[in-house]
Amino acid sequence: MLPITRLIITIQQQDDLRLPVHAGSMLRGAFGMALKKLACITRHKDCTTCPLYRSCAYTQIFETPPPISDNPLTRQTANPYVIQVPEMGSRLIEAGETWQFGFNLVGKAIDQLPLIVYAWQRACEGGFSKAQSRAKLISVHQGELLAYQANSTLNIVKEQVAPRSYGKTTVLRFTSPLRLQHDGQIVLLREELTASLLLMTLARRVQKLTDLHSHDQPKLDFCHLKKQAELIELDTSTLQRMDITRYSNRQQQLIELDGLMGDIVLNGNVSDFSELLSLGEHIHVGKTATHGLGRYIINPE
């Protein structure tokens, strides 16, 4: 299993902040800009042309280089972090108010936590959204452990997510839009969703993160997993399409982030996927997972 660190970041607004419907892109943009200013020493505009491209802390965390390969299928990449945003929905956070969001790190990126915390501190100072609403980093918690507080040292603990035991029915409640890709298109009709598509997408994500960001690189048995996934049936009757957009500073345009939200019920034996499903709660599944999309809760009460 991939080692992970699950963090809760608490900040206090110094200016009013209007949170968008989904705040993941806003947070990611502020974090990435601050991280690059701290880590980049060559000031290349295009990271891929930089001589430090494959060793820079910024690219390793925020723009992970793909593996060197002639096979385009193996040149896909995955960044070792996930932003777990506040509850979906636009709202105003007034100056003086505190708020929180989750930030999960995977594998080797955990060792960069001091730099990452400093980047969040700088991101807060630079401000969020187009209005550049300034904030202050108050604390970083790892569960009950205070990992960071202003003017204090860092405490870092790597976790191993324990797999659960599952019955014949497993519910995955998606609290942010699920964006699964099939034949080059995002699946937006619940009738087109299959257990194989969902579970194998999760398996490939775990394997890619393992290959790129873990010192140990065990290989999943995809043939076996595929056969098992095809035996599982889905109930997607409560899924609803959710249409959201984000603004891309790089592309200077709005980007659609449409996906499916609600419950997916897995009917069948998921024991071969127990570790993957448990890990998936923290690394999410599908496109744009680092922004916080594709987040689910297993068997919610």
Per DSSP E runs of 2 or more residues, the count of β-strands stands at 17
Q: What is the correct CATH architecture of the largest domain?
A: 2-Layer Sandwich
**N-to-C SSE series?**
EEHHEEEHEEEEEEHHEEEEEHE
Arithmetic mean pLDDT: 91
Helix % is: 10-25%
Count of individual domains: 2
Q: In DSSP terms, counting alpha (H) and pi (I) runs of 4 or more, how many helices?
A: 6
Largest sheet: 6 strands, antiparallel
Low-pLDDT runs of 5+ residues are none
Rg value: 19 Å
Strand content: 25-35%
| Structural class based on helices, strands and sheet pairing | alpha+beta
Q: In one word, what is the shape?
A: globular
The CATH topology name of the largest domain reads Alpha-Beta Plaits
End-to-end distance, in Å?
Answer: 26 Å
Q: Which CATH C-level class of the largest domain is it? A: Alpha Beta
